[in-house]
Specification:
- 37% of the residues lie in helices and 12% in strands.
- By secondary structure, it is of the alpha/beta class.
- Strands 9-8-10-11-13-12-17 form a seven-stranded mixed β-sheet, sandwiched between helices. A five-stranded parallel β-sheet has the order 1-2-3-7-6, sandwiched between helices.
- Helix 2 crosses helix 4 and helix 6 runs parallel beside helix 7.
- The radius of gyration is 29 Å and the shape is elongated.
- 53% of the residues are buried.
- The structure holds thiamine diphosphate and magnesium ion.
- Thiamine diphosphate binds next to strand 2 and strand 4.
């Protein structure tokens, strides 16, 4: 339980009858403690408002009016044991869990020592690893799906405790540059054997832990909220939803937000839930509701939903003036329910504290806050040189030599022939299988990825199983069981959000987005959560998820919604590794690196290449890895450099071979393989040699991935060029259904040939 500095002597001796009175499980001392946290929370808000007006901090978000429900939750749950996904009004919760006022003021001033973010996030964006308070962002509701994944992670480890152990690494890992002061250590590290992200993930879990997640009434309109309710009900997961209903979302009142005006009524049909609706300004009733909710979850019955009616006395934020949309009469009605004054009156009425005791408690709080404010105002800001620190793992560098291994010679076939060449689809499947064998923390889920959700059909051998719409995960559920390979509801945000929560707990989710064209519902989770979590928490939390995505066109019939590319939208996100292999061997090596590394990875698999004859290879064995950011020279040449990746590689190769045959032009064809990071050294070395360069990509031309490469070449290699940097890419439109149109839209070998020839002749 949380510790407190409340002086126990403050409690009045009281008369005999009241002394032993128990308030829904709260003793008199606990009630004083609760009041202390509530009062402190309100006074921190007041202090911050003053500091903001004095321009000593840069933003303020108050928890005023929400103190009672927050403290109640904090006293009913256990810091560092249960898990917390709070929202910005949860100041009192955080205090009750053990966060210090100084920690809060340090975030306000943006200090280097701000334990939540090192000056990277606004105040009231809580993140305290030692208390299991997980870093939160600003988008309303984006924490909710992660709370689901967090609870799933806890349950997984409770059922498979051995998965939580850190395997012994056979050699020390190769550290990332900022952990080893920049000096490369080639050849160090341990590719074979044990080294992977697990060395740096100290997993903790409790068999009866619960996950708390809170949100405002307005936020319950977000789709992710409903995806989360569905997911927790399906999994009967121990998650407590706490909707703190102050009746407004900025200026929008609840009846405009929530059909019928009551979120309790709307959610009441979800199965397996324990429901509570409570006056969230009453700490005793709120505590009782939380205690019941927690007990229900701890006993494994399922999730709980606490709907707390609270008030918002300080406008939405300092930038909002609620008098513009709320008349005095309404605001006065709220003020009569103010939880801080209410609790004070309660303590007096019950004889728990007298006026002297209250004054003394408040004085103690004021003194403590003054010391904290003074200290925070002296705190040093973060160094500007630190801006890129913790974009990626400081522990595991996937570009390092530790991730460079040779393919193993597979066993010869019975008649002594070399092992058969396999497709990209085969090798991805084999790589997933071998990694799952090696690492029990790997979970695979997504739409249709399981063999068969109705297990008994598989057991009775009535069906063979599906394993993905492209069959990439075929057989994995059969081999590893339904708790490691399973179908998710059709909800992409939930796939990525849950995976993010699981990875925060130390699991390695390898999830599938069925088609790149349907990644957009997950965009908020990818852009604002997955890629940012390590950076915004100053390395307090990380979530190295692998997202496998089927991408691309040349399908004759795929049309707009099954053929698009769009990788540059993701390479534009710091914190995310983006990989795009063009052949089976690279897919196997890069996927293994993606799984073993400690960063989130978007692994783009071109559908057209899944079963292509081009680029087949025998399985390179269970430890084959390719480091990220290392291009491959597919065809060496001296006259012209072509930089490409993905399905354009075989097309460009065809064009290059024709150009050499017909015109004697020797093209150097570079397959980038990895788009973030990308291999600038390989590009520069080639362009310095050939002095002519074409950048080719399947996505539409303007603002595409190659635009950045072309710009950088123009910027840094201008004096090496004998010709303008050219690009060949798709037309600036969508991929159409009719094959004649598709051919005209996507870059073809002929287009590449023409551009190469022109460039060579320039
Ligand atoms: C996705 C998203 N949309 C809009 C905003 C801007 N915004 C911040 S808070 C807020 C209102 C939230 O209301 P509610 O959920 O009721 O919480 P309250 O602030 O009332 O506690 C809005 C619209 C945001 N942060 N995120
Ligand atoms: Mg609200």
């Amino acid at each position: 339980m949380a510790t407190t500095k409340t002086d126990p002597k403050l409690a009045l001796a009281g008369n005999g009858a009241k002394k032993s009175k128990n308030y829904e499980g709260l003793t008199r001392e606990r009630l004083i403690e609760a009041y202390r946290f509530m009062y402190m929370s309100r006074r921190i808000d007041d202090r911050e408002i003053l500091l903001k007006r004095q321009q000593k901090i840069y933003f303020q978000m108050s928890g005023a009016g929400h103190e009672a429900i927050g403290v109640a939750a904090g006293l009913a749950l256990k810091p560092g044991y249960d898990w917390f996904y709070p929202y910005y009004r949860d100041r009192a919760l955080c205090l009750a869990l053990g966060v210090k006022p100084l920690d809060m003021f340090l975030q306000g001033v943006g200090a280097a020592d701000d334990p939540s973010s090192g000056g990277r996030q606004m105040p009231s964006h809580w993140s305290y690893p030692r208390l299991n308070i997980v870093t939160q962002s600003s988008p309303t509701g984006s924490q909710i799906l992660q709370a689901v994944g967090c609870a799933e992670g806890g349950r997984y480890f409770a059922r498979r405790p051995q998965a939580a152990e850190i395997p012994a690494a056979s050699k020390s890992p190769l550290l990332a540059p900022d952990a080893r002061n920049g000096a490369p250590v080639a050849g160090d590290g341990a590719a074979v054997g044990g080294f992977d992200y697990r060395q740096f993930k100290n997993v903790t879990f409790q068999n009866d832990e619960v996950t708390y997640v809170s949100l405002g009434d307005g936020t319950s309109s977000e789709g992710e909220f409903w995806e989360a309710l569905n997911a927790v009900a399906l999994g009967k997961l121990p998650v407590i939803f706490c909707v703190q209903d102050n009746g407004y979302a900025i200026s929008v009142p609840v009846e405009v937000q929530t059909a019928g005006g009551s979120i309790s009524r709307l959610v009441s049909g979800f199965p397996h839930f324990h429901f509570e609706e409570v006056d969230g300004t009453d700490p005793v009733a709120s505590y009782a509701a939380f205690a019941r909710a927690a007990q229900y979850c701890r006993e494994g019955h399922g999730p709980a939903f606490v709907h707390a009616h609270v008030i918002r006395p300080y406008s939405h934020s300092l930038s909002d003036d609620e008098r513009l949309y709320r008349p005095d009469v309404e605001r006065e009605r709220d003020a009569a329910r103010d939880p801080v004054t209410r609790t004070q009156m309660f303590l007096l009425r019950e004889g728990i504290l007298d006026e002297k005791g209250i004054t003394q408690l408040e004085k103690q709080v004021e003194e403590e806050l003054q010391v904290a404010v003074d200290q925070a105002l002296e705190a040093l800001p973060p160094a500007p040189e630190s801006i890129k620190k913790y974009l990626y793992s400081p522990d595991v560098d996937p570009t390092s030599a530790a991730f460079s291994t040779q393919p193993a010679e597979g066993p010869a076939t019975a008649d002594g022939k070399k092992p058969a060449a396999k497709t990209m689809a085969d090798l991805i499947n084999s790589t997933l299988r071998d990694e799952m064998k090696r690492d029990e923390r790997i979970l695979i889920f997504g739409e249709d990825v399981a063999d068969c959700s109705r297990e008994e059909y598989l057991k009775r051998k009535l069906v063979k199983g599906k394993g993905g719409v492209f069959k990439l995960t075929f057989g994995l559920q059969n081999e590893f069981g339904p708790d490691r390979v399973f179908n998710s509801p059709l909800a992409e945000a939930a796939i990525v959000g849950r995976a993010t929560g699981m990875a925060t707990r130390g699991l390695k989710p390898v999830v599938e987005i069925q088609f790149f064209d349907y990644i957009w519902p997950a965009m908020m989770q990818i852009r604002d959560e997955l890629t940012v979590i390590r950076w915004r928490s100053n390395n307090g939390f990380s979530c190295p998820v692998v997202i496998r995505v089927a991408i691309g066109g040349y399908l004759t019939g795929g049309a707009i919604y099954h053929s698009q590319c769009g990788e540059s939208i993701f390479t534009h996100m710091p914190g995310l590794r983006v990989v795009f292999p063009s052949n089976a061997l690279d897919a196997a090596g890069l996927l293994r690196t993606a799984i073993r590394c400690d960063d989130p990875v978007l692994f783009l698999e071109h559908k057209r290449l899944y079963r292509e004859t081009y680029g087949r290879a025998p399985y390179p064995g269970p430890d084959y890895m390719i480091p990220f950011g290392k291009a491959k020279i597919v065809h060496p040449g001296t006259d012209l450099t072509v930089i490409t990746y993905g399905a354009v590689v075989p097309r460009a190769l065809q064009a290059a071979q024709k150009l050499e045959r017909e015109n004697g032009v020797k093209v150097e064809l570079i397959d980038l393989r990895c788009l973030n990071p990308f291999d600038w050294e390989a590009i520069a070395a080639s362009v310095e040699k050939t002095n002519r360069v074409l950048v080719a990509y399947e996505d539409s031309l303007s603002w595409g991935y190659g635009a950045e490469i072309a710009a950088r070449i123009a910027d840094q290699l201008f004096d090496k060029l004998d010709a303008p940097v050219r690009r060949v890419a798709a037309a600036d439109t969508f991929v159409a259904y009719q094959p004649i149109l598709e051919d005209a839209i996507l870059p073809q070998a002929n287009d590449l040939f023409r551009a190469m020839k022109e460039l060579a002749e320039y």
